[in-house]
Amino acid sequence: KATARSPRWISVFALHSRQVESYGSGTTFLAGDAAHIHSPAGGQGMNLGLADSQNLAWKLAMAVQGCASPGLLDTYSEERHPVGRRILTSTDAAFAGMTSPGALSRAARGILFSSFGRKRILPILSARAPKMVSQLWVNYRASSLSQEVLPWKPWRSWPLHAGDRLPFLTLASTGKSTTTLDLKRGTSFVLVLFCSSEGAADLLLSGLDAAREALEPIAAGPGLEVSMIVDFMLKADATAGDLCSHASSPAASALSLFRVEDSADFKQKFGLKDGIALVRPDGYVGYLEALGMKSQLSSYVRRLTK
């Protein structure tokens, strides 16, 4: 049984909501609480700071290696400042909604915690909350480091765009289950070839040597890995050599081969059946190209490297 007594010590907790105008100037960069402070509503501060560091780290590494383009480090603030601004706006609104004595806020809280709100509104918010607070919604589609070559789609839009996080898929390789997260465990870029037929696999592999040549500045710097994801049946021990006549090339023989375990999930998250995606070290798709489109991979690499 708890007993209330007079407090021994009382302190004032002051909230701030501030953000620097730019996350970088010259060779000086700010991340985490040095770049932004806000209400703890939703517990978003840690993920925000970690993502800042993740975005900056690979760009700094390329600069230290001497292979970064002159403007690469500037994209840190370009990409992360809007995310920080949105978090500040949402946490301010959440805290005000929880604590404001205003009539509108009181009415909203009354509805939320009423019988109707607990049955109809809270379940919806609870389902959406994990994606919001984990910041899996973040994308860099508007970034100068995001480039895509996709066919025009007259209705809706493609589910996957350059600047999006590489979608989560369950994969199989040599009889073992894995995921797309395992493609990005290291600090290298990853070129992902994805296809839905053996014919498309043949075409993608036939162009792999040219793609590797375009990506040579990246391979020589942060490093490059190549993986292929296929959405058709394979033998448990299948290799690239089983897919096409071009597998004898050094580039094709070095790739890792994976099969999609849930075809519907692949179609829903990728949209494109066949193409290539260059995944950055932070797990975001920098370049996305549909099979059959004129490649702009070389021009994209020039944005990143000297």
From TrEMBL:
Keywords from the named record: FAD, Flavoprotein
Protein's UniProt keywords contain RNA-binding: no
Protein origin, superkingdom: Eukaryota
A Pfam family of this chain: FAD_binding_3
Domain FAD-binding span(s) in chain numbering: 4-89
Obligatory cofactor(s): FAD
A molecular function (GO) term: oxidoreductase activity, acting on paired donors, with incorporation or reduction of molecular oxygen, NAD(P)H as one donor, and incorporation of one atom of oxygen
Keyword Flavoprotein part of the UniProt annotation: yes
Protein's name according to its UniProt entry: FAD-binding domain-containing protein
Species, as recorded: Chloropicon roscoffensis
